[in-house]
Amino acid sequence: MSASQARRPAARRILYLNPDAGIPVLGEKGASVHVRAMVNALSALGHEVGLCYTRAGSGNLPPPCRMMPLEAGIGEKARPSAHTAPPPGLAAKTSLARERDRIALDAVLADRVERAMQTAGFAAPDLLYERHALFHAGGIAVAERFGIPRILEVNAPIVEEQARHRGLILRDEAEAAERRSFLGADLVVAVSDAVAAHVASQGTNPARILVAPNGADTARFHPESNDGKMVRGRYSLRDLPVVGFVGSFKSWHGFDFLLDAFARVAATLPEARLLAVGTGPMLEAARGRAAEPALAGRVIFTGDIPHHEVPAHLAAMDITVAPYLDQPGFYFSPLKVVESLAAGRPVVAPRLGQIERLIRDGETGRLYPPGDLGSCAREIAALLRHPELRARMGERGAREAQAAWDWTQVASRILDHVPSTRMARAP
Asked: Which pTM value belongs to this model?
């Protein structure tokens, strides 16, 4: 079934709530892309959507919906915490203040949402679609105020993620809010099996959990939508074999691992090039490594680009690599994998979590044992050496994306599982 054939249920008025100030809804982050993709899909299915958000950001046009910013500032003090005092230093004090601000906002979230709706002239909704956020369970009060079902989209075990990668002072409060939010949802949409298992571990009824991996805009990410010539010309790639990376330069995204693998590929295929799209805290270190003799002149960094330019960059690549590193409970549903497949580009990736459900080994890409550098390099080289095999894999991947992964189909499946009336009650 193509995106245009996705079943259209009766039109609803849907309130999309993104209370996370770390996700600018018009920005370039993967989470920002995800927010706009879901709003676009819900609107394309014929629903009236109001997007309520904390931070707008910039870089992209607003999706087809009623844009409803929450009021800036908290205006109320956070409730005092019994948590032990933070370690000394300005950074800790700043982090604690931000965490308390989130708690304070959550306490008044329902009032803020209602005022934003009134200002925008958005009538009472039939359904709440909420993106799960750290320290937030206020969507429960929003759903109860309007007497509507509440969908909670969970993209990661965010308490553990925050504690591991960025630091978390009020962890007890964060865990309590997360559990309330899970139990107060009529339907929890988890992007991977690992995320679903995390939600269930907090006491959520498995019957209320739906696994819905990320999708792609198959009208834009399509083999016939772009030819890649302009991008190849921009970076002087001509007709050279090109390996692609699209993502963030963060440790767990594995770009250092990819550089090691590509150095082995370049030793036998010196004409090969690596086109790296994106930005992140490790970008400058990656540039430094790419200047080493084994890689010099063979790695091109684009820096940050608007998401609407990603399809043309994928079209300039022969294959892409998603070199994620192994970690306990790998929970990602990588957006870049689905978009690459939709664009007709075979993907080389490790056998990890949801990735094994997205890529059919030998059919739409190649899978290697996590952390196996030699295997990764061999799979990349094998695909670069066999253009006909690449073409067949790309065609299969694009067909599968058209058949099942368009965002409108993802949204339609989610709406099919929503109860007609609100059932959940927060503990």
From this structure: 0.88
- Of the pLDDT bands very low, low, confident and very high (cuts 50, 70, 90), residue 427 is low
Q: Quickly tell me which residue has 């509507």 as its tokens.
A: 148
How much is the pLDDT for 90?
Answer: 53
Which residue in 320, 310, 349, 344 sits closest to 333, CA to CA?
349
Q: State residue 359 phi and psi, 5-degree precision.
A: -110, 125
Q: Is the pLDDT of residue 58 over 80?
A: yes
**C-alpha span between 192 and 212 (Å, rounded):** 7
Mean of pLDDT values over 374-394: 97
Which among 369, 344, 349, 370 has a CA at the least distance from the CA of 359? 349
Domains of the chain: 8-215+407-416 (3.40.50.2000), 229-404 (3.40.50.2000)
Phi, psi of 290 (to 5 degrees): -70, -15
Residues 338-349 as b/e (b if ≥16 CB within 10 A, e otherwise) read: bbbbbbbbbbbb
How open is the CA angle 358-359-364, to the nearest 5 degrees? Answer: 135
The count of other CB atoms within 10 Å of the CB of residue 268 is: 11
List Cα–Cα distances, 339 to 72, 210, 217, 334, 359, in angstroms. 35, 22, 8, 9, 12
Task: Write down the H helix ranges in 121-192.
Answer: 139-146, 158-165, 171-183
Q: Scan for tokens 């067909």, then name that residue.
A: 399
What are the tens digits of pLDDT across the range 252-306?
899 999 999 999 999 999 999 999 999 999 999 999 999 999 999 999 999 999 9
